Each structure stands twice: as structure tokens, then as C-alpha cells.
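A student in our group prepared the protein record below, which I am reviewing. I have pasted the whole thing underneath without changing anything:
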Amino acid sequence: MKIEKILNNNAFISFDENGAEVIVMGKGIAFGKKTGQDAELVKGYKIFSNSDKGLNQRFKKIISDIPEEYMKITEQVVIVLEKEYDKKINDVIYVSLTEHIHGAIERYKQGIQLKNPMLMDIKRLFRDEYEVSKQALDSIEEQFSISFDEDEAGYIAQHIINAELNDNMTDVVNIAKIMQEILNVIKYTYRMEFDEESIFYYRFVTHLKFFAQRIFNKSIYEDDNEEIFEVFKDKYIDSYKCVLKIKDLIEKSYEYCLSKDEQLYLMIHIERITTKAGI
């Protein structure tokens, strides 16, 4: 790719085949190069492309102003999420998380550590993201000799969730709220405590994460399984009654009408976590 502007030894600006500006990153990819030359794409290179010009400017500023060690922490986080957890992560994380890590370390040096009011919800509802965040704290401690408490893992997890859902931080808070409300309906209907280590609970909260996002964003979910829905609601009567309570809550609180497909998937998950049935 042709180098339009060198940002540092590991990043340069270029244009893609459609003429859109992109930022190309890779270890030593621009080392010894000059503007106008072609750069060989090294192993593990990354192309950052975003139509948001403001976000692109922030990214350029990060590369120019923040030491690359901070970006490497973010890169490690993305690699783990994509390879070990099969997550799809929006490139916005390279901006938001790198800025956050840099700011958190600067605050730490001033003796400031922030409490995270969402920590307990994040640990319970976003287990994968929280585990990866703890790994990020280990990398920060190893590289910068700084030991954060678990509140910081919660903040890093929020940036991961944001990039995973393509939402902003405020939306993540609201999505977690919807998830907890749905779990509470099930909990009090069945008078049960969830086995948060079970695979059925893990699958359910993963489903709830994207379900809650659709509710918050008012995204319409089309019905494709009406016949199956009719069979299941007659077969799993208690689970269906619980779904109707959830449906009523969501309609009253969020003005969102659950499709039959959404009711079906909720029914299946509720049946699994309440009976541990392998359906």
C-alpha cells in the first residue's frame, strides 16, 4: 500500500481501493520508509477504517501522542477476544480503550483510582469480557508495574462490551439494566437462584446481551418460527407464562413488542436454566 503520511514506525496513512482514508498498523511497517513509497504489509498488520472523521482524528492523535505500549495492551485484548472467545469487535476499541488505559494509568500516578458502580453486574452478566479485562490488568502490571483493583477491570470490560455491541457507554449501562430486570422476573417467578457457573446460564446471558440491545435500540426482529413457537408454548407451559411476564414488563417499560421468535428463544433458554434440560 502507498504511504500517504507516516504516523510512526508502526503506522501510516493510506487510501483503500475506494479512495477512503485508512490507517495501516503493523510492527515496523513504516520503519525506514518515506511518504510516497509502497509499504510491505507485515504479518499481523491491521487496517483501521472508519467513516467517522472525528474518530479517525482521535486515532491519529493517539498514535502520535500516546506511547505505543498502551496500544499494544488494546491489541492483546482484541486478539484474545477474537481468537479465544470468537467475539467480533468494532475497531472503535483501538481508540476508546487505548485512551482509557492511558488515562487510568495517569490517574493512578496521581493516586486516583475510580470505583465502578457497575462492577457486580459486569462480573455476573459479562463474564467473558470481565475475564479478558483481568488479563489486560495483568499485562498492565507486567509492563508498567502498576497494580489496579478489580474496579478497573470493570471499566475495561465496559469498553469491550461497547465495541462488541457497537454502542456507547451509556447504552451499555441501560443494556445491563434490561438484562437484570429480565433475570429478576425469572428468579422471582421460579423462586430460584441461578447457577452462574452452568453452561445454560452462560448461554442465556449471552443471548440476553443482544436481546437487550435490540430492545434498547428498538430493532425489529422478524418472525420465522411461528409453528415451532405454537408447539413450544403448549409443551413448556410454565416457561411460556414466565415469558409473558417478561413481555409485559418490556412493553410497559420500554415500549417494545416482543416477536414470537423472541418469545420462543426466551422460552427455550428459561426451560434450560430452570430444568437444566438439554433441549
